[in-house]
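step 3/5: co-fold with adenosine-5'-diphosphate
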Amino acid sequence: MKEEKEKMNWKEKIQLNRRAFALWYRECPAVLVSTALYSLVNAVFPYITLFFSAQILNELAGARQKDILVRRVLTLLAVEAVVLLLKAVVFRWKNVLSDGLCIYLYDWKRQFDKLLSMDFCDAEDTRTHELLDAIQQTSQWGAYGMRMVYLQFRDFIEALFQLLGGIALSVSLFRLPVRVDAGWLTMLNHPLCILLLVLLLFGVTVLSPCLETIGTKCWIECDEGFKFGNRMFQFLSRLMSEDKRALDVRLYRQDKFFEQMDAINCSYGIHSKAARYGRGKMGVACAASAAVSRIFIGIVYLFVCLKAWGGAFGVGSVTQYIGAITVLSGGMAKMIEITGNASVNAFYLKRAFSFLDIPNKMYQGSLTVEKRSDKNYEVEFCNVSFRYPGTENDVLKNISLKFKVGERLALVGQNGSGKTTFIKLLCRLYDPTEGEILLNGINIRKYDYQEYMRVFSVVFQDFKLLAFPVGQNVAASVIYDTQKAESCCRKAGVWERIEIMPKGLETMLFRDLSEDGVEISGGEEQKIAIARAMYRDSAFLILDEPTAALDPIAEYEIYTRLNQIVEDRTAIYISHRLSSCRFCDEIIVFHEGSMVQQGSHETLLMQEGGKYSELWNAQAQYYVSDAS
Ligand code: ADP
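step 4/5: write tokens
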């Protein structure tokens, strides 16, 4: 990251900021319009008060004509009322569309969509997750990255109108001359004096934000140091809220880890780098920045008061000019700060885009998958080999296999033999390194991916149910067919449990989002996940260790229901427990990435010295010794 920081030029920084702004505008134009309007009204409002109250004060200190005074007061009140009303309306509009949370959501959704749409190998890659972690951390602790562009835009519009309003209201300060009989004060009319003052004001206005930027840079330098602290913090907050970990946390006081690790790493606290900077360079720069801006205000007061004393304008205008120049200078300072921030932020934008720009390298087909009510889809693996990206060895070697429609197929083999990888290839999470996979005779790469995936229902070993109603979980949708959901739950053997829940299918699962939510056992969760796979109504049902979380009785129950669950689908099971594979028509034995045996349970058992009988005997032995 450091190298990138040194290399980036202004052109690239501007391009990155422009691209980020265009992205925001494409995603949420209404948010930007409402924000711009709010910033405009916010910037202009102080000037309206300044202008009209100066008029009133001038009249009070001058001719004191009653009707003019009344007219000016009424105008001030009317204009203020209208602007305040407008401000309130725009404020609400902006807040509804773009309060902090919404902006967070846009940010989060952009990242989430990208993660879901990128090639699976990239989504699985730890480097992708490290990159995303880094992006999220800087966004959380300093709003750097995409969120900063939105905040900068808001501030830019405000600063722009502060500048324009300030110039409009303060031009006459330099134009109106001190009276010729005002003695030495007439030197204030000299063009050089005015030029000197303008230069001084400009210098001071630039200096203050520059000092501020030095302070900000110090903060950025602490970025690396915060990384560890933030990760620990995020982990700890998750740790505290996961009830499944509650026992472990209490028993082993895992919260203490955080304190000890932080003491070692010094991310936070008085010994941290940030605290040292605060006491040194960063503190001095920020204090100097504040002092400079106070000095500036003092100079403005002096100049305006001397001109008023010399008779250049009335006492009312003193407030107008002082106010206008102070806001004008604030606007200038903000502009400089925005430029400095945009420059620093460019490095974080580069990081954000390096995530968003991860290319999809897998071929994206467009063929539609023929819809067949008879579920007559034929899948064939032709000489398929596969090696994970960045690794040296094939984890699947020369697999050739044809699934017969409506067949129950079991994949067995020791851990690491390639069973899950086989399913990943079938679901096209990866493309084979060699060979091809065909669906009804056509390479699966040629199909539209979403269409292709509709042919499969998978219950992964580490499936996740959401803290939503049971019915919605089964249908994987907010709107669902109650009868179909019930029927799937019945076939999966979990209906009796759902029936006695307070609201049946409408009962919330878990307590994350509702106090009335019900906690269910691992086995019940697994049955609901099976019901979810059945609801999808696809031609293939893939069950990865379908009974892993079940006790032997529940496991037996599931297997006796297998025919009900699978119906006319083609089913593929992955299981460690060979006893559960006896029910399948065909068993495929994997060993070190190769298919070493294929056949029915009985045929395979008869092949003495084969891998299957070896595994079977090992497990049978285990059960026997376990039972004794
Ligand atoms: P099984 O499901 O039979 O236990 P897997 O298909 O999960 O086996 O794994 C097969 C081999 O591939 C193992 O050696 C495993 O370490 C390796 N492997 C699995 N996933 C990845 C991955 N994402 N990157 C690199 N190697 C992997």
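step 5/5: annotate
The first helix runs from residue 2 to 7.
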